[in-house]
Design goal:
Chain A starts with 10 loop residues before the first helix and ends with a strand. Chain A has 826 residues and is an alpha+beta fold. The chains are: A alpha+beta (826), B alpha/beta (122). The A-B interface holds A 628, 630-631, 653, 655-657, 699, 701, 703, 721-724, 739, 741-744, 746-748, 771, 775, 777, 780-782, 814-816 and B 1-2, 27, 29-30, 59-60, 62-64, 66-67, 70-71, 74, 90-91, 94-95, 97-101, 103-104.
């Protein structure tokens, strides 16, 4: 049917088949659809698109004659359907009109309605059905009967009209007077939600001049519809006590005010005025009016920004054309707060379903800690699923986009998902619309709030709850996260250590007893892993680490420590083990395991630089997996700002390769991150980490170097556990730091780590690396490190370049994976 | 890695029912560590708790090799024995120092010294 060739014969046969539903009688121009479908349903989409295209052409040509435009549209449909030329289409139209006894104009409206099946057609359809009484029955030859022609004429006029004023006049004459209305006004909305009268008919020039502009905040009938985003009907304007244009002349007259929007955005308001009080309108008429409003919206959207001398009403705010996103992106980069530029994302039906993040500005910081690039270009709800619920942010953005009314609020709760954990923060929010774009700006309350959220972030990532128990006074302090771990309300009393056994799985009671014995009686640092049974029936795998604080007299004063939820980690390990068992033995299995390991590595340490906000410190990282996938292993790095504003810097290397090493890496990296939140020094942290490695991983040893850098004093406190010491580059010198005492992790149940301090100068660079960078079979480590120092001494224009150089000129021959962390004091 | 031939020779010399000397020659790495592990397990299984490792001909050791040493020393000490390291080459000694292993397993100059220490511990 839609093919280009029509096989000889009488081409009109094809058309009459398509137009089978057309009524044979003049007058009833629009048929009642016998059922929802027709023979042309399959090509509806294409035809609708063609109609849309033809409409555009008609608009461009500024078709002079209203009727001619309609006929042109209909011809276009015939051309599309029969695959014939325009001249033949014109003949077809004439022949058909004669055959069914309609005027060419009426038949054209009919054909377009059949093809377009749009809202206008539905409205006309329903109107005719109601007005005429019986569906499909021949209609009396009344003016009302040619609704389709009327609407199409109005539409065609609107499309070809040079300005909104002409649209208003055409609407009143063709579509609204038959409904008994006496006047119509078309308002456009400004960026500040002011309303400008862009077209009017029936009110008189003086009244229009008085109402040419309604400033923001003045409640008129049109603003009610705009702000409410729905049709508003007033039986009598005076009775409702609402001011609006023409109220003086028709005080008791009714009004229907309809927001005119497309794709989720309200471009203006259509206000229709009756001279007398208005009874509720039949549904069919309401739909017809809504269809007209939609038509208005299309014309407002399509019209040029200002009507140069065309309208009697100049002034008011122009409607910005285009989406304006690039300019807005540039502007947003000048802001000192994080900002996103959003543009609407419509579904196929033209309905607003989401917003596209067109630009994340220079100060943008993802609340979930992802790099800017992973958010830029994404859909808002995909990047921030939590905006849809809880914070209602999405709804606010949608509203601002629709109405143009800016939204500003202080202390709004924002929720972001961090690894599926909702993270809430308070922020001042500003949402405003510019052109077809929305600018979203937020400011997290203040620095302390930001740090608090960072702390939350770190704690939630590690799922750490901290406690302090004064055993003398009996006071117990828990942080909020710990209540959550225990599944207790913050109003409930905390669980003292001595009662902990009552909250654990029966099989783990002995573990807890031993742990308490060690901490409370032997007064040594202790750690235990156990299954916690919560009130709510949930079982969590928890690790507790505690440190006794001893009084000067030697007695126990307090116990400090942290609980960490290792359930996710536990199940990762279980899942990996299960997968490994299942895959054992075959070649593919080995490949699958290697792939898993690599994925795990990438999941934990994305190759991109982690966002790090430490004043006066540049951080760069490199992770290079072993070339052979089977050798990808347990190297890790970490660089994170702690709640204390100090920066945790770490690299480590779990012995061995493959899934076991990578799993051990996950355990140790998470544990260190969690433990660091306690504020302990690097020596203590490694000591705890040694306990974790020894007790919680099976036969795993690891080496690590751990530093805590204080940007305020530019001092680095560091310790090492069997790992090569960091390298310091100062000016054109480079040397490795001393080999302070520290056994590799996991070798012994308890180990102590010497801690040392280094004061960095501006311009200093510190490098931490794993032995993948230096290990060689034929060279002593000492010589390999000397080679590394030589490369580090060479001038380099940036930290990133230096790291690239180090990797590129590494002489390692063991194909081990490699991590390098570089920090530079600025 | 696959193009490399596993390069490790271990010679086991049983001194008495509680003592063995294992001479480890070549490279102790991911490929070869399992062999040494197996031989050590065998010695522990036969009741020998005092193990001397002669490292004078070991040219290279990585973290997998270290892991074997640490498991062995822990196992020996749990059962009242010990592991003794004799005459590590400079490269291997450096690895032992960096990893702090020398603080928990101090190396001896030669096999004789190591056996003397083992005898003293009896």
């Amino acid at each position: 049917m839609s093919g280009p060739s029509y096989p000889g014969g009488d081409p009109s046969a094809g058309l009459s088949e398509a137009g089978a539903a057309a009524p044979p009688t003049p007058g009833a121009a629009v048929p009642y659809p016998a059922d929802g479908t027709s023979a042309v349903a399959s090509v509806d989409g294409r035809l609708a698109a063609t109609v849309e295209r033809l409409r555009g052409e008609v608009r461009a040509a500024q078709a002079a004659a209203e009727g001619r435009a309609l006929i042109e549209l209909a011809k276009g449909v015939i051309v599309e359907r029969l695959g014939c030329g325009p001249a033949q289409a014109a003949r077809q139209l004439a022949e058909l009109a004669d055959r069914v006894g309609l005027s060419r104009l009426e038949l054209a409206a009919d054909i377009i309605n059949q093809a377009a099946r749009d809202r206008m057609a539905e409205a006309a359809d329903e109107f005719v059905r109601t007005a005429v009484g019986e569906p499909g029955a021949p209609a009396p030859a009344a003016p009302d009967a040619s609704v389709a022609v009327r609407l199409r004429t109005a539409e065609s006029a609107a499309l070809s009209a040079g300005d909104t004023q002409a649209v208003a006049e055409s609407l009143l004459r063709h579509a609204l007077e038959p409904l008994g209305a006496v006047a119509v006004a078309i308002w456009t909305t400004g960026p500040d939600t002011s309303l400008s009268l862009r077209g009017h008919a029936g009110f008189g020039l003086d009244e229009a001049a008085r109402w040419h502009y309604v400033p923001p905040g003045v409640t008129t009938a049109a603003r009610q519809a705009l702000i409410g985003r729905r049709t508003v009907r007033y039986a009598s304007l005076a009775a409702a006590g609402i001011p609006s244009i023409g109220r003086a002349r028709h005080p008791d007259g009714g009004r229907v005010v309809v927001p005119a929007g497309t794709g989720g955005r309200i471009h203006g308001v259509l206000e229709i005025c009756w001279a007398r009080p208005l009874d509720p309108l039949p549904q069919a008429v309401e739909r017809q009016i809504e269809a007209l409003a939609e038509l208005c919206a299309h014309t407002l959207e399509a019209l040029p920004e200002a009507s140069p001398g065309g309208s009697p009403l100049s002034g008011g705010f122009p409607v910005p054309g285009g989406h304006g996103a690039p300019a807005l992106a540039e502007l947003s980069d000048g802001l000192y707060d994080p900002a996103l530029v959003l543009t609407p994302h419509l579904d196929e039906a033209g309905k607003l379903v989401d917003f596209r993040i067109r630009h994340a500005n220079a100060h943008f910081r993802d609340p979930a800690g992802r790099p800017r690039g992973s958010v830029d270009g994404a859909l808002l709800l995909e990047a921030y699923p939590a905006t849809a619920d809880g914070s209602e942010l999405f709804e606010r953005i949608e509203r601002v986009y629709a109405t143009g009314e800016p939204f500003r609020a202080r202390r709004t709760r924002l929720t972001a998902l961090v690894d599926q954990v909702p993270l809430a923060s308070l922020a001042d929010i500003s949402i405003s619309r510019y052109g077809a774009s929305v600018l979203l700006i937020w400011r997290v309350e203040d620095e302390s709030a930001r740090l608090a959220s960072l702390l939350q972030h770190a704690q939630r990532l590690g799922r750490v709850g901290a406690f302090e128990e004064d055993v003398v006074a009996g006071d117990i302090t828990w942080n909020g996260q710990l209540y959550e771990l225990f599944g207790r309300m913050p109003t409930e009393p905390p669980v003292p250590l001595r009662d902990l056994a009552a909250h654990v799985h029966p099989d783990d009671v002995d573990t807890i007893r031993r742990f308490l014995q060690q901490v409370l009686h032997q007064r040594r640092v202790g750690s235990a892993a156990f299954r916690m049974l919560r009130h709510d029936g949930v079982t969590r795998h928890i690790r507790v680490t505690a440190e006794p604080a001893v009084r000067t007299g030697g007695g126990l004063q307090a116990v400090r420590g942290a609980y960490q939820d290792i359930s996710a980690q536990h199940w990762t390990e279980v899942a990996l083990t299960a997968t490994r068992d299942r895959l054992a033995a075959t070649e593919e299995a080995a490949e699958e395991r290697n792939r898993l390991t690599l994925q795990l590595q990438h999941a934990i340490m994305p190759p991109a630089k982690p966002p790090l906000d430490a004043p006066g410190l540049d951080v760069a990282v490199r992770y290079r997996p072993a070339e052979s996938e089977s050798l990808v292993g347990g190297d890790w790095y970490d660089a994170v700002v702690l709640p204390s504003k100090k920066v945790l810097l770490c690299v480590g290397d779990v012995a061995g390769h493959g899934v076991e090493a990578a799993t051990g890496m996950v355990v140790l990296r998470n544990a260190l991150r969690g433990l660091a939140v306690t504020g302990a020094g690097p020596g203590q942290l490694l000591s705890w980490l040694n306990g974790v490695a020894h007790h919680l991983t099976a036969q795993v040893t690891a080496t690590a170097v751990c530093g805590i850098y204080d940007p305020g004093s530019r001092t680095l406190r560091w310790a090492r556990a069997g790992h090569l010491p960091p390298v310091l580059v100062r000016g054109d010198e480079a040397f490795d730091l001393p080999l302070v005492r520290g056994l590799l992790l996991g070798a012994l149940a308890e180990a102590e780590y010497e801690e040392t301090e280094l004061r960095l100068e501006p311009g200093d660079t510190l490098l931490m690396y794993t032995d993948g960078l230096v290990e060689r079979r034929d060279t002593a480590v000492h010589d390999s490190v000397a080679q590394l120092l030589t490369v580090a001494r060479e001038p380099s224009d940036s930290l990133e370049r230096l790291l690239d150089q180090l990797l590129a000129r590494s002489k390692s021959d063991t194909d081990d994976d490699t991590c390098v962390v570089g920090v530079q004091v600025s | 890695m696959s193009e490399r031939e596993p390069n490790l020779d271990v010679d086991v010399e049983i001194r008495d029912d509680r003592t063995a000397v294992l001479t480890v020659e070549g490279e102790l790495d991911m490929e070869t560590a399992g062999r040494l592990q197996d031989l050590l397990t065998e010695q522990f299984g036969e009741g020998r708790r005092r193990i001397v490792l002669d490292l004078s001909a070991l040219g290279f050791m990585d973290s997998s090799g270290l892991n074997v040493l640490i498991r062995a020393v822990n196992r020996a000490r749990e059962t009242g024995g010990d592991l003794y390291l004799a005459a590590p080459t400079p490269a291997v000694r450096r690895i032992l120092e960096i990893t702090g292993v020398t603080t928990t397993i101090p190396p001896h100059d030669g096999v004789a010294d190591a056996l003397a220490a083992a005898g003293g511990a009896r």
